[in-house]
Amino acid sequence: MTRAAADYGDVVVAAPVTVPYVRHSIRSAHHFVARALAGLLRRAGLAKSEIDGLSLASFTLAPDTAIGLTQHLGITTRWLDFLPLGGASGVVALRRALRAVQSGDAEVVACIGADTNHVDSFRQSLGSFSVFARDAVFPYGSGGPNASFAFLTSHYMQSFGARREDFAKLCVAQRQNALHYPHAMFKKPLSLEEYLNARPIAEPLRLFDCVMPCAGAEGFLVMSRGRAEALGLPYARVLSTMERHNAFAEDPIQLRGGWSLDRDRLYGSAGIAPEDVDLVQTYDDYPVMSMIQLEDLGFCAKGEAPEFVRRHSFTTDGSFPLNTCGGQLSAGQAGCAAGFLGLVESIRQLTDGNLARPVEGARFALAVGFGMITYDRGLCSAAAILARAGDGA
Amino acid sequence: MIPPLPRPKRKNPVLRTRAPLLPPGPRSRAALGLTAAAALGRFELQECAACGAVQYPPREACHRCLGVELPWRRQSGEGELIAETTIHHSHDTFFRERLPWRLGMVRLDAGPTVVAHLHGGCGTAPARVLVGARLDKAGQGVLVAFPPEEVPNMADDRQLREMTCDPKYRKVLITDGKTAVGQALVRAVCAAGAELVWVGHAEPWKKLPGLEQIDAMPGVSLVPLDLTDSRAVREIAGEIGGKVDILINNAEVHRTQGIASRSGIEVARAEMDVNYFGLLRLAQEFAPAMRARAADGQSSATAWVNLLSVFALSSFPGQGTYSASKAAALSLSQTLRAEMRPAGIRVIDVFPGPLDDEWNQTLPPPKVSPEALARAIVAALRDGVEDVYPGEVAAEWFARWRENPKALERELASQS
Amino acid sequence: MSTDTLAALAADLLSGRIRVIDLTQTLAPEFPQIVLPPEFGQCWPFRIEEVSRYDERGPAWYWNNFSCGEHTGTHFDAPIHWISGRDLPNNATDTVPVQHLVGRACVIDCSREAAADPDYLLTRERVLEWERHHGRIPPRAWLLMRTDWSKRTDPVAYQNFDETGQHTPGPASDLVRFLVEERDVIGFGSEAIGTDAGQGYHLRPPYPCHYFMHGAGRYGLQCLTNLDRLPPTGAVIFCAPLKIKNGSGSPIRALALVPG
């Protein structure tokens, strides 16, 4: 049995910032990083010189990495991290930053996920995403992630009897949530019929099963509670986190992620149970992944998510609020920023800094990370349980 | 159910001919092992020399034991289709023109899960399938999941035809109809459903047997073609080059001499003039038109076949100048392949052992019969491979050459 | 005297009283070459490769490289060509006396016989009969065998092969000896691809025209054309080979002077 991880003591997370998404941009990723950092400083009332740690996640900075950005943005740090882990980058950045501040390696860490999206950059990125993808996936129709998740979705449907209507339920509910979120890319309601009759992309996936690539950034600050209070910043606490990479490599196809390996420790450290969670931000690049995460994170048994979905409304004002700002499916997927979206939205919900409609009385939020489908499955699983200040074990 | 391939309509001559596109071609060096095997018509994956684990995708180290010796070994390809999709959207121009496209995820019995092009004869998941390797239009090895049993019109599958060069309903030029091999080829490609066969014959006054019967076959026409005559090659290319879908260059001069056994270079030069320069002349005149027609509908230009010799790999000193001319042709063929690749036209090199013909009269068996050689060439077109070693002698020499080229050099010297 | 003759010749050439007839086939890749069994060495056919044609290979000029055998196209056979003439003096293209390369020609019309029989052999009797009409063949004259074979423009008909080999007309063995020994001809010329008949291998000796002519230091001309435009007697022909060192023969531009 792995030793339980130490808690995060008095280290907190604050200043949720979103650089509004745009479908395409002619600016480079550096532009979005800069705007996110400026937003964080403005929000916290900090000078640039007071940031001494930077954690950056991006796919489109090349040939730069985080170090190039220190000079580009004119900041001096004593702690630096670069985590281009896609959908897991937010939670993983959070974990690293918490420990850095806790151990005294840094005082204030800016965590930023940012990517640009030129008209053709998504296509160009696909062929070079990974060696395995270049060798063994992209030459097969070049469908990109849509094709990969079509496999997982069809296998999931075949294994557990999920229906298209079940995925529709999630997509339609998230669109409802997105209508209250000003930065969502999709601003019109989505009907069941529209979802079901959308043009096919990669069977069984149709248009509204697929996220829309866009440009944007998300960020937050990690610092001590004392510092946050001195700055007058609302903050949230981090009760527990996990990450797990390349779990269940022996599974012939992905029906589960690494969450199920760490679930008990995750809730145990947090001192809460799944039913205590007030809102969940799944990593919803495709709705099937939301179902798998709900199962692996203990909200229902493996294979029962379709039934679970049929029982809940998932809107901010209904039962089991899920992806309260619309998730990526409605807000858009801004590269690595998508790995921050759920965390940033969770911090907002727990600090009353809502842009979307608040979940009344929410005390505990679960933000999930998932990413890096370098071949046939997403390799990174991550999750964090956040609590409103004053709540939790 | 695979619908049978329809006979193509005649081309509308006022429409633009589409430019050829290729599927994504970049691969890691490790992954080129798949291509190397597929070029020979084999499905091979890396197997760890230390622990035996089968690896996929190709890699540098064993995922189980970190061993770095990962030799490529033949695979049965048996497996289960566990998931499938039909994509209606692609980020690649080649596939965009060919949507929808069916893909499968297959759990091989040998262990790994593979993404594969899914043949139309495969049942829906879950289903048993047989995975094989093919070269795609880019000339790179890809995996195709086939139904475990033969289904009707198997070769006519739309996706599979993008990886093969099936002669069915295609127009074929065979550069020399005067030899037994040439005539066997004419019969074989006609039997394979070729739409039209042009048969070259040089020095028409040499009335060699069989040519009249070939000429009388439906769909076959004789054309004057002497590979030593640049102008004649250019003229015939101007006449039919814009229609040839498959070019089979079987013209060769074959004499049996080394260096000391015949003085002078006149015969060696004649071998070179046909076997090497003849290929060069053909390639300069026919390749441009074929490249331009590589995406010309169902029956596009698709393949170029060179009849080489297993002696191209390592000299058979008793036929030393012939070996040298075939080695030169092999080298040139690699250049032709590189130049044809942007159009997706397959260049197939055929490396037979001694043919059962008059110039090998005194060699002991086994020798390749013209009919067997022709069958192997048609099979190579249907399978879309790059290198063919028909006959027992060729297969054995190839194996010896792969294992130890220097040893084969010694062995061949002692046979001469 | 000679000066006057040449001046008169020049004047006649200018006025057209003497005409120049081209006896030469065009050198082209499609013109057939002699065929030997494949285990023997082969005569190269005429081949031509463009060097440049006012293009990137040579912007202001056009030229070609060509290749062929010594016995390609309309050509001259020197005595050294045959084993019977190998030891004679002045037997090669560079040493044959140039005085021999211009001379009178007697033309025997065998076109009717050749049309009826492609294996037609010109005989001593036929030549003697010709002499009854046209006079005795003068010494050191060419005997040209007109067959109209050059009118066979299709290479297949020109070569005229079947399963027993080539069928083209030529001289009989005894005629060749007669021409050399009793008429002292300078050489023998043919419209077919060889001076000997297509089936000459079966004569005794094989290829008698090559054997006896070259053995006696005489010459051969092959693949001539336009013999039908020459008078039976009275023409003068020019048939100089390229001056190839120790050459056995050479393509030529054969010309004839005839009364206008």
Describe this structure as you would to a colleague:
The complex is a heterotrimer of chains A (393), B (416) and C (260). Helices cover 36% and strands 20% of the residues of chain A. Chain A has 393 residues and is of the alpha/beta class. In chain A, strands 3-2-4-7-1-8-11-10-9 form a 9-stranded mixed beta sheet, sandwiched between helices. Chain A starts with 10 loop residues before the first strand and ends in a 5-residue tail after the last strand. The longest helix of chain B is centred in the last third of the chain and has 21 residues, at 320-340. In chain B, 31% of the residues lie in helices and 19% in strands. Chain B contains 12 helices and 15 strands. In chain B, the strands form 3 sheets. A 7-stranded parallel beta sheet of chain B has the order 11-10-9-12-13-14-15, sandwiched between helices. Chain B has a 5-stranded mixed β-barrel with strand order 4-5-6-8-7. Chain B has a 3-stranded antiparallel beta sheet with strand order 2-1-3, with helices on one face. Chain B has helices at 32-39, 93-96, 158-161, 180-191, 211-216, 230-240, 266-275, 277-292, 320-340, 370-383, 392-403, 405-415; strands at residues 44-47, 54-55, 72-74, 78-87, 101-108, 113-118, 127-135, 141-146, 171-174, 196-201, 220-224, 246-249, 303-307, 346-350, 387-388. Chain B folds into 2 domains: 32-161, no CATH class; 171-415, Rossmann fold. The relative contact order of chain B is 0.11. Chain C has one domain: Glucose Oxidase, domain 1. Helix content of chain C is 20%, strand content 26%. Chain C has helices at 2-15, 111-116, 124-134, 155-159, 173-181, 208-215, and strands at 18-22, 47-55, 58-67, 75-77, 102-109, 121-122, 142-146, 161-162, 165-166, 170-171, 187-190, 219-222, 235-238, 249-251, 255-259. In chain C, strand 11 (187-190), helix 6 and strand 12 (219-222) form a beta-alpha-beta unit. In chain C, helix 5 packs parallel to helix 6. Chain C starts with a helix and ends with a strand. The model of chain C has no long low-confidence stretch (mean pLDDT 96).
